[in-house]
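HOLO CASE FILE
Compound: aspartic acid
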Amino acid sequence: MSRISRREFAKRLSAAMGSAAAFFSADLPAWARGREAAFPGSPMQKNAGKRPIMISSANGYHFGGMRVGYEKLAAGADTLDAAIACVNMNETNPDDMSVGYGGLPDENGVVQLDSCVMHGPTMQCGAVGAIENVKTPSLVAKAIMDNTDEIFFVGRGATEFAKSMGFEMVDLLTDRARRAWVLWRETRSLYDSWGAGLDSPDYEKMQEMKKRGPDFAYFVQKKAAELGIPEDEREVAVNAVLHPPHGTINCQALNAKGEISGVTTTSGLAWKIPGRVGDSPIIGAGNYVDGEVGAGGSTGRGEENIRVAGGHTLVELMRQGKTPMEACLETLRRVQHFFKAYPERLKKVEIQFYALRVDGAYAAATLWGPRPGQKPAQFAVNDGTNRLEDMAYLLKWDG
Ligand code: ASP
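Model generated. Tokens follow.
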């Protein structure tokens, strides 16, 4: 693992800016103008900015949310309503197994969801953690913002609040997510009672496999077939067991007037310890907006983002004059900093930051560049053209 050189950084920065629609005008705040001048020749100074604009993690594109949200935004909807309309597409779609309905559950097979929303024009916000039985935690977070003098509800209280507001109560665990969870449970530990027991002809074989030797992946695959997981679901389920996935959507929306809002929503880390919440529902970590500066959000390992208060850090860096790209890379550097004593461990960290400034300049960056043979990570942008763009990254993967 190596930190990128100055020259490489500058090259990547200008490449990323080249692909980023950006905005520069006389009404750009002085702090931002000065900063852009530090990058002479950068398209940041030349390209006409496009507003309205929305950015999100790539799943905003894959599940249609960026199209739906942008239509609302362009039609004059409030920026927070537009951002929420985007993420509702993921929350209600059972095929997104990292957000809302159909999300992968906790250790006990219970789906608990986290979300927070922040409205730039008023600086109002709302949040829910470990809420159950509601498909759209983002809308519950907004209901807290709209209907109470409080901000953050968790667990049973959050669910009860949602019920009182008329949200439909549903079982969030789909059969597909349940099957993946059963697979995880049966293959997980040598020291529990799941899987073939002492009375089974397969006992020794199972114990051997659970030691997670080189055949472990094969064993999980085989077990998936034995459990009757349909072939077309198997790869996802097996991968979720081998590498418990994170997955979330962060979406930020800016309208033509320069108003901005953001939302983050997730089912969190698959197979998490019951009660665990990550960064997504934390205002200032998973999502933060300052109506005079911009929005910052994150996906990936929430534990790291909480430690750097990523959403707030992104916005503060932009307030100090950093571009969205610089803000994303600097926030990633702070994550890296915590691992200075254990650089090898950093390889286990997967985290992304997203930043949108009130002038329409935007960026997204991930900690690690693509592994050999892999394509760069992407994020979604809609400024009238709905598309995916490659993310910048801080560190080159060196295996
Ligand atoms: N940040 C989320 C969490 O830690 C998960 C993710 O984005 O992958 O719960």
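CASE NOTES: The pocket of aspartic acid is lined by residues 246-248, 266, 268-269, 278-280, 299-302 (CB under 6 Å). Residues 12-48 have pLDDT under 50 and may be disordered.
CLOSED: yes
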